[in-house]
């Protein structure tokens, strides 16, 4: 097992042995028949018409795979396998049709389908099978799950007849909800071939689309006038790429069936060029940044990075008819003015294969774009000659500009002076290759984050996510508080040494992992040319950069050593100066104490003299007069208090005498019983007791007689 390119050891897995056996039925071209969601790898088996799944999280403990058997296998060649975000459905698409397979439930210790059952029958339904069968000239160009679907069951299909078809793929059954027209339907043909309509030959049909970030719904004038506008509603605009390079914007509501589809475009691209940036476009990708970055790829290996912004150059004073686009709502056509435009940031050229000599022909092939699973700063490009990774430093600059407050906004303006970095990860073709070995699938696993690549030979690569530019220089500079608000020259001088070394080690060219097809048997001369090319690349790019880094480190060491020597000398001089200053400070401290004692003595003498002077004055001072007046007032109050106290004492004596008299009178009124009265009361009580007893006896007797 090659640990560098097969981290999970999938090359010798039984699943991919089955896949290699089915490659004879797969078209030799770049496609995507694998996907990974929730660490479950899905692979299409063209031989047995089923889906093979593998749990990557427990692949070493449980290497067994599961087979998802469709109840109604697709009758077309599958070239795209796409799992929705909730991992509940799988879209199987090919040029001649689309099918949706419902995934079973997962349970058990390893989270396997149906607890680990080896073969599982899954419900598979085709979308408009009859329609595609009756129209063999119509091809499916692209399928994507709608990101705004509340149930994650809406699938958007782009067909070669310039239409977007929206399907609801819930368990109740697939249903065609809407058909959005993107332009005139292709009619006629340039030859006798039934699959080459006239507009297709001219490149006027849609070939790819992608969703932009959601925006609030803009209500029509009629709705706004009636007050029925929903401020919480959002919509997902769609950018559609035509073969001639034109891009249109489609705006349609997913929920509101009455809302009309608005198609505006083609969008303007700035700065303008004579060739409109080429006419052989093949793929489109929208990165969910703010503002969105649109990537357009051509079959010649050229990538255009554009910002999707409001078109501020529109002249509102001109009549609306001078700048309009068409939109179809049902069978009628209406005109709308584009409100956004594309601003091209840079153009990136990809190396499609390794060139062994200067006389090699230019390679052209379709390029498939795919988002990176970890960050929006990157994306992947897969094609017949391998796979590239592209890093965009402008994403970090835009993010810092958006997050900055208004006070420091000018300091975070995107400089746009750092070009994108392209890394050639895997190369599957040289200029001398006769047999194509395209990329059959690209996916990402989550734990750990790995890049999964299925080659045309059936070999499966599981590589660590490339970290060529984990953090750009602009990010580090913005995070450093010491460099904020500085000029570019001062910022360069204050650049950290490790950042400078990283910049010096940054390579413009990369040496990809070479994975040629099994039918390619390079000669000794071709192998020698590959070795010489690699050696030359290392000598001209890698070794020279390391040599410059070594010289830079040595120069920095010499500078630091001279600075250290100078600082040691300065330190010894400062130590001697410190000793002299300490001695002078001690002398000054003693003088200060003597002066302080003398000053305190003088203060005491001055206070004594002042007090004696005041006492000898013949008249009273203001303070003495005030104090005398206060004492007189206190004396008057004391006299009043004495009178009040005397009155209280007299009242107390009077009340005491009254209390004694009341107690004496109370003792005289007490009644005492003599002996005769007490005996009389006792005799009366005895008689009453006897009478009561007799009455009780009589009552008891009466009760007995009456049998009560």
SSE blueprint and pairings:
Layout (H helix, E strand, L loop, with lengths): L13 H8 L12 E4 L2 E6 L4 E6 L10 E5 L9 E4 L5 E6 L2 E6 L3 E2 L4 E2 L5 E4 L1 E4 L1 H6 L5 E6 L8 E6 L3 E6 L6 E7 L16 H5 L3 E6 L3 E2 L4 H6 L7 E2 L2 E5 L4 E5 L10 E3 L4 E2 L10 E7 L5 E6 L3 E9 L14 E5 L2 E5 L3 E10 L18 E4 L6 E6 L2 E6 L2 H10 L17 E7 L11 E7 L4 E6 L4 E5 L8 H7 L8 H6 L3 H9 L7 E2 L9 H92 L6 H47 L6 H31 L3
Give a verbal description of the structure.
The protein is α+β, with helices and mostly antiparallel strands. The protein is built from eleven helices and 36 strands. The chain has a five-stranded mixed beta sheet, with helices on one face. Strands 22-28-25-24-23 form a five-stranded mixed beta sheet, with no helix packed on it. Strands 29-30-31-32-36 form a five-stranded mixed beta sheet, with no helix packed on it. The protein is flat, with a radius of gyration of 48 Å. It starts with 13 loop residues before the first helix and ends with a helix. Residues 189-196, 221-229, 315-335 and 468-492 have low confidence and may be disordered.
Quick structural gist:
This protein has 708 residues and is an alpha+beta fold.
User: What general form does the structure show?
Assistant: flat
Q: Give the spatial strand order of the biggest sheet.
A: 1-2-3-4-10
- Spans of 5+ residues with little confidence (pLDDT < 50)? 189-196, 221-229, 315-335, 468-492
How many β strands by DSSP?
Answer: 36
C-alpha end-to-end distance? 112 Å
Estimated helix fraction = 25-40%
How large is the radius of gyration?
48 Å
Beta strand %: 25-35%
> Which structural class matches the secondary elements?
alpha+beta
Figure out the total of helices: 11
Largest sheet descriptor: 5 strands, mixed
Average pLDDT over all residues? 80
């Amino acid at each position: 097992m090659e640990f560098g390119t097969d981290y999970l050891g999938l090359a010798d897995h039984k699943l991919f042995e089955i896949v290699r056996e089915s490659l004879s039925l797969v078209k030799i071209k770049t496609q995507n028949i694998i996907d990974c969601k929730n660490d479950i790898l899905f692979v299409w088996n063209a031989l047995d018409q089923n889906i093979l799944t593998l749990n990557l999280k427990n692949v070493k403990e449980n290497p067994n795979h599961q087979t998802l058997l469709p109840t109604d296998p697709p009758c077309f060649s599958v070239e795209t396998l796409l799992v929705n975000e909730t991992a509940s459905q799988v879209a199987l698409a090919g040029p001649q049709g689309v099918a949706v397979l419902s995934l079973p439930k997962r349970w058990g210790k390893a989270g396997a389908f149906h607890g680990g059952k080896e073969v599982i029958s899954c419900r598979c339904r085709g979308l408009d099978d009859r329609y595609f069968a009756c129209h063999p000239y119509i091809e499916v160009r692209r399928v994507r799950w709608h990101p705004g679907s509340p149930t994650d069951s809406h699938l958007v299909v782009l067909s070669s007849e310039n239409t977007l078809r929206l399907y609801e793929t819930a368990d109740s059954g697939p249903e065609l909800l809407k058909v959005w027209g993107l332009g005139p339907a292709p009619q006629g043909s340039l030859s006798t071939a039934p699959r080459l309509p006239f507009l297709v030959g001219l490149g006027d049909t849609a070939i790819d689309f992608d969703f932009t970030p959601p925006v609030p719904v803009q209500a029509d004038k009629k709705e706004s006038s009636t007050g029925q506008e929903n401020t919480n509603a959002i919509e997902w605009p769609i950018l559609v790429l035509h073969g001639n390079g034109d891009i249109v914007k489609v705006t349609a509501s997913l929920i509101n069936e009455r809302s009309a589809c608005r198609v505006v475009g083609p969008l303007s691209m700035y700065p303008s060029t004579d060739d409109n940036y080429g006419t052989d476009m093949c793929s489109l990708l929208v990165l969910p940044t703010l503002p969105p970055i649109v990537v357009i790829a051509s079959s010649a290996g050229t990538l255009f990075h554009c910002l999707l912004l409001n078109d501020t150059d529109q002249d509102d004073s001109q009549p609306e008819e001078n700048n309009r686009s068409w939109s179809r709502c049902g069978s009628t056509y209406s005109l709308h003015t584009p409100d956004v435009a594309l601003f091209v940031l840079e153009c990136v050229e990809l190396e499609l294969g390794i060139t062994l000599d200067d006389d090699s022909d230019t390679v052209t092939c379709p390029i498939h774009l795919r988002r990176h699973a970890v960050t929006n700063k990157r994306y992947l490009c897969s094609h017949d000659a391998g796979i590239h990774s592209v890093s965009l430093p402008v994403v970090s600059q835009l993010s810092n500009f958006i997050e900055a407050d208004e006070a420091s906004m000018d300091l975070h303006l995107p400089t746009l002076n750092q070009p994108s970095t392209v890394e050639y990860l895997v190369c599957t073709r040289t200029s001398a290759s006769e047999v194509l070995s395209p990329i059959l699938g690209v996916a990402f696993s989550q734990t750990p984050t790995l890049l999964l690549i299925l080659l045309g030979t059936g070999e499966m690569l599981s590589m660590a996510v490339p970290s060529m530019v984990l953090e750009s220089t602009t990010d580090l500079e913005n995070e450093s508080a010491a460099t904020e608000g500085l000029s570019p020259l001062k910022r360069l001088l204050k650049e950290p040494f490790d950042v400078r070394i990283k910049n010096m080690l940054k390579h413009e060219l990369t040496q990809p992992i070479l994975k040629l097809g099994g039918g390619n048997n390079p000669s000794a001369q071709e192998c020698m040319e590959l070795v010489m090319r690699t050696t030359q690349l290392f000598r001209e790019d890698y070794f020279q950069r390391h040599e410059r880094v070594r010289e830079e480190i040595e120069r920095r060491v010499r500078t630091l050593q001279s600075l250290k020597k100078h600082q040691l000398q300065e330190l010894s001089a400062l130590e001697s100066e410190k000793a002299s200053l300490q001695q002078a400070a001690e002398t000054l401290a003693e003088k200060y104490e003597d002066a302080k004692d003398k000053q305190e003595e003088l203060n005491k003498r001055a206070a004594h003299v002042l007090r004696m002077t005041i006492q000898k004055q013949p008249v009273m001072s203001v303070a003495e007069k005030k104090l005398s007046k206060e004492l007189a007032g206190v004396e008057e109050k004391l006299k009043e208090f004495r009178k009040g106290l005397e009155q209280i004492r007299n009242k107390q004596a009077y009340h005491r005498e009254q209390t004694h008299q009341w107690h004496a009178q109370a003792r005289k009124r007490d009644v005492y019983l003599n002996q005769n009265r007490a005996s009389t009361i006792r005799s009366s009580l005895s008689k009453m007791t006897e009478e009561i007893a007799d009455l009780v006896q009589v009552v008891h007797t009466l009760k007995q007689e009456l049998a009560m």
